[in-house]
Design brief:
64 residues; mainly alpha; 2 helices
Length: 64
Amino acid sequence: MVKAIKAKIEGKIPFIDLTDFPDQFQGGYWIFDGHWNEKGNEATAKILSDYILETVVQSKKSGM
């Protein structure tokens, strides 16, 4: 399902597929319900902050 959504919106809006980062989510889920635990939330924060910082740096370099 994620891949279908990504294909539909790719190039229209920014999209980060967190399933592309499986190593960062090892042990990042609660066993009883599959939601992110503290480690999963930290992994998500790192991935998103890296993306945002890269985007800002690239836009500043290109003069946007």
